[in-house]
TrEMBL record:
Signal peptide: none
Domain GAF: 272-406
Stored Pfam families: GAF
Protein name (Swiss-Prot/TrEMBL): Lysophospholipase L1-like esterase
Source organism of this protein record: Cryobacterium roopkundense
InterPro entries, sorted: GAF, GAF-like_dom_sf, SGNH_hydro_sf
Length: 406
């Protein structure tokens, strides 16, 4: 009888709640939110990669950059705990609901992430999504994330925020939404308990929410700290596990087809030089003090250089490309003395012009995650491993990636 009464009340209130939710959406249109590239990172060489997906806290209401919002706060907090670099990518939408999560992330290479943080449900609480619909839909989202990601990827679901923690929601209808959020949170916590790879975190109200600002950088720092406490140990455990980074084996030809599609989708091959890339190349040359620097793209059977200094040819055969080797891994490729490395000692770029003896390259990824080329510095003089700043190399590669995302 109680369940029937709740269902009846839900059917009667749902139209009212939808109208109210639409009015709230209009009120939020003038609120500050980030409009920069949806990424944040903390410096370090051996980086953890996080995907933040959702609405609400993922949107960044109240601040104007993702660095000040949850992505930047989470990256800094995690880096402080683990001592590693952290890259956070964001897929957010104020309108995201349990129905749209999978559609919003479809096509994203989830296997490259060490953790996925999902914050969804605010809109479902406001619209009183029935529990009988929420339960299977949340289970389907978790199943998709686990199936498409690495076997060591941790999936963390952040509970729906209490309606009382948002000044706009402190009304009678807001109380109804908050009570419904509690029901949905309980169902989500149960769904997450069915797998060791999924976890649920109750949302802790922000300490400084105000009607004037809605959210501040202090709020996001608090939430970043809360999430980092949960993710840090899971990321460490995932590294110790050392399992395959892909959910299922894929043949090399299949991986290359996907990678080449990402290259083609950028529409940058055989384009004219651009100042935004030339500036990064010039900066890399000054910082590493090498004769040559290039931003490269690996295309079918060639390496094509988008920007370069100290290099005569715009392209070389892929068979001779150092960068083609660099994109096989996620981290830096550093060859201190090519003549001492059997992979490169007979390379025509080593035995002939430009007589490369030192090479350092960091993979550059397309917005969809495929490694499409590299930021590389090289020289005819060998170097000691201790003299190569791998963190700086990564930072420069990330500058290139940000430009690709614009």
């Amino acid at each position: 009888m109680k369940e029937f009464t709740q269902q009846l009340a839900g059917r009667l209130l749902r139209p009212v709640m939808r109208v109210w939710a639409a009015s709230l959406e209009r009120d939020f249109q003038g609120a500050p939110r980030p409009h920069d590239i949806p990424q944040a990172h903390s410096a370090g060489i051996d980086s953890d990669r996080i995907l933040l997906v959702g609405c609400g806290p993922a949107v960044g209401w109240g601040v104007v950059s993702h660095d000040l919002a949850l992505p930047g706060s989470l990256a800094r907090e995690l880096s402080g705990l683990t001592g590693r670099g952290v890259d956070v990518d964001v897929i957010e939408s104020p309108r995201m609901s349990i129905d749209s999560v999978v559609d919003d992330i479809e096509g994203v290479l989830l296997s490259r992430y060490d953790a996925i943080v999902v914050t969804v449900g605010v809109n479902d609480a406001l619209r009183l999504t029935p529990p009988r619909e929420w339960r299977p839909k949340m289970a389907a989202v978790l199943d998709y994330l686990c199936r498409e990601s690495s076997r060591t990827t941790q999936v963390l679901v952040l509970g729906i925020m209490p309606s009382g923690s948002v000044p706009f929601y402190k009304t009678r209808l807001g109380t109804v939404a908050g009570q419904h959020a509690d029901v949905l949170n309980d169902l989500t916590e149960t769904a997450c308990s069915h797998s060791t790879r999924t976890a649920f975190v109750r949302f802790e109200p922000a300490p400084t929410a105000s009607a004037e600002r809605h959210r501040t950088a202090d709020d996001y720092r608090a939430w970043g700290h809360m999430l980092a406490r949960q993710l840090g140990p899971a990321l460490d455990a995932g590294r110790l596990a050392g399992m395959d980074s892909h959910p299922a084996p894929m043949d090399p030809a299949g991986r290359e087809r996907i990678r080449q599609r990402a290259v083609d989708a950028l529409h940058m091959l055989d384009t004219r030089p651009e100042d935004r890339f030339d500036r990064i190349v010039a900066l890399a040359q000054r910082l590493f003090r090498t004769e040559s620097v290039a931003i490269t793209v690996i295309d079918h059977d060639r390496q094509w250089n988008k920007s370069m200094v100290g290099v005569e040819s715009r392209e070389i055969p892929r068979a001779s490309s150092f960068c083609s080797v660099a994109i096989e891994g996620a981290g830096p490729l550093v060859v201190c003395d090519t003549l001492a490395d059997p992979r490169f000692s007979g390379n025509p770029l080593v035995t002939g012009d430009p007589h490369i003896r030192f090479y350092a390259g960091f993979p550059i990824e397309a917005p969809s995650g495929e490694r499409i080329g590299a930021l590389c510095v090289f020289d005819p003089v060998p170097r000691l491993a201790a003299d190569v700043d791998r963190v700086l190399l990564r930072e420069l590669a990330l500058l290139v990636q940000r430009e690709l995302g614009r």
